[in-house]
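Bug: token stream looks shifted between consecutive jobs. Job 1:
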Amino acid sequence: MQVKQEITLAMTRWERLLAVISGGILLALLFTAATLRPSTRGYGTHQQLGLPPCSIRIMFDLRCPACGMTTAWAHTVRGQVPSALRSNSGGTLLALLAVVAGPWGFISGIRGRWLCAPPSDLWVAALTIGIVMVTLGDWGTRLWFEAH
């Protein structure tokens, strides 16, 4: 049984490359979020990177589903999860996922062996669907309360 587990934990060359790149990107995003000051408005933190304000916000005076995600990441890396959730709950979940998946993927890729276990297609799909549903639910709730 030990031999079979070792074989399933070994990574192919492409898995290693993908794990190092994706883990590195997530770690870079977390580092970037740590350099930003969360906006007190709950959105707009991305403008510190030289990006323009949200077009949907300007044109329709409504928050888009992604409004507040950068702010949520900036709060999350500081451990301010309640503030992050108020900014964008889907963004908070993504940031928390990045805190786990970034180091896991990067270290796994460097080692050439999955830490704990390889990612399951079912888990990846479930996490993706869950985060999208939370993001859209958060957005719908914000639109509802802005309208009433």
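Job 2, same session, no restart:
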Amino acid sequence: MVKSEPKKRQLKFNTLDEMMADVRSLNEHGYLSHGNWTLGQACGHLANWMRYPLDGYPVAPLPIRMIFWVMKKTVVPGMKRKILAEGFKGGMMTAPESVPAQDELTDQQGVDQLQNVVDRLNAFQGELIPSPLFGEVAKPMQIQISLLHAEHHLGYLEPR
């Protein structure tokens, strides 16, 4: 038996404001989740990954850091090009601490957290903290990656 992919919207955000407009609409009008997360969880997760380049990334255990180092030297350039060309795909690993528990954030709290970090990123001047996997990323590229990340997760939430 072949497992079917969950229903997913095809989104294209050009700006963080467009992303936040979709988030606010989902929060105000309701949604059906075709994935595993609520709007609050998705927003909290997106906020965490947008916050890390500003405040610092979680420190992975030593074996994972070693794997990241090898990956940076081998597969990451191709992986980065593929994400930029095709977006994020389901089933990719993420840092467990980046995903809020379902009862940890209400939808409104997640939206508020995401808006807060969007405001911070928009106002940020200077060098971002390098990613443990992707290395140094300029602010415009970080925003582009964040928008692709949001398209992926918010795509599983269908507006009512």
